[in-house]
Give the backbone structure.
Amino acid sequence: MAEQSQERPETLTHPLSPRWLERPDGYRHFESAYFVGHGTDMFERCADELLHWEVKIRSGFDIEVDGSTDAVSRAGGAETTAEADARADGVRPGRPPRVERGQEPTIRVRLGPFRLPEPSRVIDVFEEEGRCGFTYGTKPGHPITGEESFILIRTADDRVFLVLRSVSRAGLGIWRLGEPFVRLAQIIYRRRYGRALRS
């Protein structure tokens, strides 16, 4: 709760604003809302999943935070006693740490047998009545330069939506040469994000 009382950091995507009016120059802007479901239970489930990186994981990424690698994509095996105890306590074995402001996860996109690192930093995490999510920005070595927000909202008529907002431009160095491929990849992964919480 202490973190929520701190002054909010500056972001380019303004995730707490109902309407994104101030859009920075020099970037491509993207905003879209994806229907997830209805009701408080749906919102709470999706909020928990979103704030443990599930949107990224289910869309084809591995998440590594503080040396702890998400185990979703690993080959499965028999559950250990420790894992069973963790599951009984409501913790999924191998689950990445909860998203926190200041985290610097390495997000690895799965491309066949390859894992392409996308260094990032969490700028903000927000939890309000009917709205929660996080914003992260890219670090050097990422294919793009920019910022992305994942915003879960529950409307007055009890519908639940995942809203994506991002600003991006070509990354530095060699990534500038691959910009058309990176743009295509963004389209593909945004569609996956839109479906990730519907299970």
